[in-house]
Amino acid sequence: METTVDIQKLQRTIDETLSNFQTHSDANRLIIDLRTALFSTIEDLIVSSIENLFSDPCFFKAVKKLAAKLGFRFKGFKPTSIRLLSGRSLPIESPYFAKALPKSRRGRKRKKRKPKSGIHLGLAYLGFMDRCSAVLASASVQASLLCPSFEIANRTLSSVGIDMDIKTIRRLCMHMGNRSMENRHRITLSENDHVTGRVLFVCIDGGRLRERRTKKGRLASHQKRRGYYSDWREPTQIVIQWLDAQANPIKEIAPLYDATMADINGAFELLEDYLRQIGVDQADGVIFCADGDRRYWKRFSSLAEKLEAKTCFQVIDYTHAKQNLHIVADHLPKTLEAKERTAILKNWKDLLWQGNLMEIRNQIRQYITYPSKLKKALNKFNNYFVKNLRRMQYAAFRLLNLPTGSGCVESAGYFLEA
Q: Per its UniProt entry, which superkingdom is the organism in (predicted)?
């Protein structure tokens, strides 16, 4: 592969720099000058190599094949710029692809293509991130994470020969952050997090928090700052633990904690990505634990079947079950004394632990005689307890060394809401 880099120019620059060193006698200045000259030459060499690769028919065919899978169409070579080592913007001609429009039909107006909907797919194919090399992007993100502000990160990068403005550093951090969030199920896990001969304990629960949303429109004359809405949002929290044969957490593997602001379908897509990356089909079994929300239980069985899990258990958190049993007990007659109500509730909890829900329903009919209260109590009991009968066999779960509570995700919810 031929290149157009002038090596003689680099040699003259080095000779001139060494000659100047005899005059100023500053070793640090010598290091900076030589580094700048070498970075500039290396970048010119890389740009020339990339341009030669773009003109290679085999490479171009592979890029077009990838574009077809993604639904993009080639729109020609367009001028753009890339950043390699020093942060300097380097001009280059790159193959540009735009989203392919659907075939027009008679009587239907074609939608206009949104601006900046295309992509320099050749650069992405070579590993560039937002027209920036991964080496430079990684250095920029690490400096931004370690420094208290983007301004100080800019100074830190400048001291090692990387010159970029604050806006570019911030844009790179946002781009890398979005990419990391999309692939966090791959980044979080390591090779040691295997599940062979182990059991996975999966807990899921909803939280509650306020999200600040800035108001739009003009500011009134008496206002100094823009107002905001603080709507309630419900994030979904996920906790995955590795258990041994006795259902004890494996201390060598830290539990996996994550949360998302997406809807329930998005939360289960994230959970599926994690379980697929872990290799749940190689585990001895998987235990799903949550409260009685139907949104979860409608999806757990299909998820386990889709991932080909060997054994699947479903457990409703025992504490949530007892809380709902208290709701049923609130319909007991007010004429009962406190000690009698406490004794009835204690007996119901014992029956709940043994999985004898039919006896609890018989006692509900025995103690609650007022028709309207009996109807409400039975509706609650049938909808929550009877429909989840197989998920509330707590005594049997304990004999099988299965957990009966989701305290790990409940405690995580407190930190999220805080």
A: Bacteria
